[in-house]
């Protein structure tokens, strides 16, 4: 399997979650209220799976290794766009969390912010994924030898293996600080 295989598989799961978020967005609009627990679940998914796990592999492994190569101006431009899009997504999720907290503390006006931030995410991810799948991942594999691809793939598997420990170490550390 090429190193982009796991990344593209992860895209399919992210797309499924975005579809669920889109359905919840429609329900929020119909009902005029939001389930804070759903927002927490969506945020956890985006932060841990989409950003830390998926974007982490892109930034910490694929982009790092591409930076060592002489890549085309076009691929360099796209890579920089993807990095900026990742930052925008992180900021959007942070704003969603802040809006959800306000809503959970009785600020019904925060509902509009929640809707806006979820709308941004459900519009952002499909375009972002399409850019990576169709215009970046596969063409960029031509810069690597088979041995380099295998090394990246192994590093991605190791990255995943460590993720669960990283997540739950942080959970314990947060409670220890309280």
Tell me what you see in this structure:
With 178 residues, the protein is mainly α. The chain has one domain (4-177): Four Helix Bundle (Hemerythrin (Met), subunit A) (Up-down Bundle). It has five helices and no strands. The protein has helices spanning 4-31, 36-67, 73-104, 110-140, 146-177. Helix 2 crosses helix 5 and helix 3 (73-104) packs antiparallel against helix 4. The protein is globular and about 55 Å long.
Structural Rg: 18 Å
Beginning-to-end CA distance, first to last residue: 44 Å
Q: Main sheet, how many strands, which sense, barrel?
A: none
**Could you say how many structural domains there are in total?**
1
Number of helices: 5
- CATH class descriptor name: Mainly Alpha
Output the CATH homologous superfamily: nmb1532 protein domain like
Strand content: under 5%
Q: Order of SSEs, N→C?
A: HHHHH
What topology does this entry show?
Blueprint: H1 4-31, H2 36-67, H3 73-104, H4 110-140, H5 146-177
Helix pairs in contact: 1-2, 1-4, 2-3, 2-5, 3-4
Brief overview:
With 178 residues, the chain is mostly helical.
């Amino acid at each position: 399997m090429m190193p982009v295989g796991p990344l593209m598989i992860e895209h399919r799961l992210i797309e499924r979650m975005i579809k669920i978020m889109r359905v919840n967005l429609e329900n929020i609009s119909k009902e005029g209220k939001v389930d804070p627990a759903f927002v927490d679940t969506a945020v956890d998914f985006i932060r841990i799976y989409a950003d830390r796990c998926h974007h982490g592999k892109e930034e910490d492994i694929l982009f790092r290794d591409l930076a060592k190569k002489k890549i085309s101006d076009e691929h360099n431009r796209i890579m920089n766009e993807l990095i900026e899009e990742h930052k925008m997504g992180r900021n959007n999720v942070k704003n969603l969390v802040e809006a959800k907290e306000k809503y959970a503390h009785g600020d019904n006006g925060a509902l509009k912010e929640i809707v806006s931030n979820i709308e941004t995410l459900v519009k952002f991810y499909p375009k972002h994924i399409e850019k990576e799948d169709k215009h970046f991942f596969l063409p960029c594999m031509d810069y690597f030898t088979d041995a380099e691809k295998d090394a990246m793939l192994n590093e991605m598997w190791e990255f995943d293996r460590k993720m669960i420990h990283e997540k739950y170490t942080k959970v314990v550390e947060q409670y220890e600080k309280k």
